[in-house]
User: Fold Putative glutamine amidotransferase domain-containing protein from Azospirillum endophyticum.
Amino acid sequence: MPVDLLSGLSVALAPLLPWPVLGVLIGFALLVVLIAALRRARGTVLRLLAVLVLALALINPSLVQEKRDPIKDVAVVVIDDSPSQAIGDRRARTERAAEQLTERLKRFDDLEVRVVRSAEGGEAGGTINETHLFDALNRAMADVPRRRMAGAVFITDGQVHDVPQVPGKLADIGPIHTLLTGDRDEGDRRIAIVQAPNYGLVGKPVELTIRVDDMPGRQSVDAAVTLRQDGGAPGTIRVPVGRDVRVDLPITHGGQNVLELEVEPAKQELTLANNRAAVVVNGVRDRLRVLLVSGEPHAGERTWRNLLKADPAVDLVHFTILRPPEKQDGTPIRELSLIAFPIRELFEVKLDEFDLIIFDRYRRRGVLPQMYLENIADYVRKGGALLETSGQGYAGPLSLYRTPLGSILPAAPNGQTVDRPFLPTVTDVGRRHPVTAGLPGDRLDAPPTWGRWFHQVDVAPNSGTVVMQGADNRPLLVLDRVGKGRVAQLASDQIWLWSRGFEGGGPQAELLRRLAHWLMKEPELEENDLRAHVDGNRITVERRSLAPDPRAVTITDPSDQTSTLQLTDDRTGRAVATVTAAAPGIYRISDGERTTLAVVGAVNTPELADVRSTGDRMQPVAEATGGGIHWVTDTDSGPNPGIDVRRTQPDRSQTGSGWIGLRANGDYTVTGVTDVPLLPVGAVLALVLGGLLMAWRREGR
Assistant:
């Protein structure tokens, strides 16, 4: 049981007997001495001295001297490397303040200084959408006991987004000081997306809510906001400052619809990065309306119907000719259906409501007047989609090619058909087209693994792209763009053999799915396109082309800095490259002909929501830990620029005008102990015996 006397020096008690026994013996001895004192016996004082010396000997005190090595305290300097630190002179002030601070901390021999930056050790593949300085502090002191912490100094603009909700738990770390790198009374304008949906229906607008704020306070009545959708032509609207405003965004296509918003600069601006915002809304189709027009019945007709009806998102209208007008079989009128098929309603009134029209083995028989076929041709030119699968009738005089549809069909019949087994194959350009590239079963250096067909119409392409070929390399599948619409022509009616599993079947479902989506202009199936995919802070740029394109792309970052990126062609129509984004925001990518956008990070990133330098966020931490908040500009001048640093006792003030304190804990390790008995045995015996002899002598007189 040691008793401290001085630092490193203490008295240790190691009783020779257990304390209860020792107490009884000492008590009995003191009782005898007390009785002697009451009787006024001579030598009582000497007997008391002997008893006390004996008791002290039994307690066995010793002087313990510890050899101590002091342990250095740890101070952490956290440097804010977030994008908002790039505003104005903040970055230069930060580096200058960090250099001055570390130089002054070197003069303390009992202090270990650790410098950590907020950008180090962040989320893998992520972008800096928030400033996390306390995460950096925790990483730096992960292996340090709290009793060794002298404190921490944050060099930041004050926009810290991971301040603990209970700052009092940080008190055992020591004082946490903040050095602000911005200027007082800063102002800025920003535009924010208050509300935006993630999805919208193609063909219908979605409602967004935006807001323009001038900080601090309201300085303007209204501001001009420029809108640009999918990199198109810009438009301008004026919105009131400080109020929520609703804006309609038309969803023109499936996939990502990107709306860029940019507000004009205010009189006082810190950065223009938060004058821009972007909304990404994924366009989806509510229901796909398909009109299937079947000519003469055949084995593949049910395959078409089953394929389209199997998709719950498809509304199918099937117009089929079961009894052509020229058929005269003597059936009484009363036994025929008297409900007329709504031909006029389908092919004139509601034709534009269909997303896709399919002609399956149709030939002219007077059922559809020429006017309705002309309506279909106009429907395609205005943006509609048409798929024609040719039967034997396409090669004859009643071919659809000899109707107004011939002006939009890409392949003309030459009157011949091929009636022998052949294996459909993908052409070289077809291996670069997203409709047929990478079809299951296709092989580059060997015949495909799918089954054969037995009938093909011999056609000669007038326009479009031949992506599949059949017997003797004759065109089999031709894709073309007509006006604003698209047309696909399959020169055979035997794709149903694949669905029946003949000779192993084939990828009919995948091929027809891609074909339908390409006809309806799905962005993922564009054959000549430039797109960008974002994963964290990595931007993957992909260019689709039917011919190799050696051009590099230009990337414009949110700060309007440009760089070039060379793409690598993989011989499947795709040229790809990946780049790492340095900051969140909108990146514009162009190859000189096409432009696409990449939105990196959150749409409303907290890092850019408010870029003014302030101590409000760190004030609760300073109050809980005894730290201070100082402006770098206040200490950056004079003969000795920089904040002054002092070592302080834990119970003293930790900050003052122009200075900050770091706690001196005085922790140490014991490397050795010297134990010296206070009462040697000889001295104890001499004192006890001497006391007893003197007492006996005194008593004998």
User: Anything to note?
Assistant: The chain is about 20% helix and 35% strand. Residues 1-6, 123-127 have pLDDT under 50 and may be disordered.
